[in-house]
Known about the structure:
By secondary structure, the chain is α/β, with parallel strands linked by helices.
Amino acid sequence: MKHREAYIQRISDWLSVQPGQIELYWKGRVGLYALLKAFGVKEGDEVILPAFTCVVVPNAIIYCGAKPIYVDISPKTLNTTLDHIKQAITEQTKVIMVQNTFGLSNEVDEITAYAKSKGILTIEDCTHGFGGTFKDAPNGSYCDAAFYSTQWNKPFSTGIGGFAALNNVNYTQQFREVNSKLATPSRKDRYVLASLIQAKKYLLHDSTYWAALRLYRSLSKSGLVVGSSKGEELVDAKMPKNYFLRAVKVQEKVGEKALLNLAQALENRQQNGLQYNQFLKELGKWHYAEEDLLNHSFLNFPIFVKDKKAFQAAAEKEKIRLGDWFVSPIHPVMENFELWHLQPNDFPVALEKSNHILNLPTEPSNIHQVLDFLQNQADNLL
Length: 382
């Protein structure tokens, strides 16, 4: 239990919550499911969320028997707003999801205050936001609960993994009862995860990034390696077998160590993000408004391009580690949206942004190489 206790204590120090309010999971989405169950979300309930998210979020809602209710996003922040949320609230609304996209939080205090006035619970999707702040409070502080991801390329990584923090102590007993049903991942999956963590540490670098990314995604979708999402999570909204799993020792050990370096990593990401923002502003391309930058921890930096394929091909040639998060309103699903109760055309901003988005790394070994690349690709930027 040594690493587990130390890991939880370090998380609690970052979040300014008690260790007993935190639970660790095999994947972050499991934390969302646990919170929804603890809050009594069931058939007939509705959960509001942005139409600019990962499919695992509506999956967790549907696994509880509830219905996801999507709302559009702001083109300035890529987050939803209180005005959008107000229009979606009904008598069946049980929970509102508040997301800090790419590490940016906004209107969290206003949304949570309004939700409380209506007797609606709130959960912050902090899968991009651990270590960041909103108005000087840690991301995840304002809502009744929050869940976090430690998947590859998140604020800090345990390979796959995540955790949840319960802020509303009125649900402590329910939260513990739900978590008492967690199962342990198979020995094979634990071994594969440990191997992948070591492989990433020693084998992944700029020259191998694109080939490794394609191979990993292919193998994880087919279930041959432990991946972010199993294939069935991307083609149907039925809960996969072996979904509700606890974290294991390798994740706890890696997470404990990773948190020691997080402060410096976050500072580097923010400095790079600010450079990107100023550079793109000077080019006359999409960038964040100055007033939003204080609340931004810059997990990745979104850019919008005219021709994705051409831009990605150029990035691979120049060994730029480009990301493609949010290629659809429920990333990475590209079809059969009705299975997730989504009509993409109802959310024009989210749809337009997902059609053109790519992401810049905020922890590159040489940011000037990325800036030079952007300058050369300026005609393809929006």
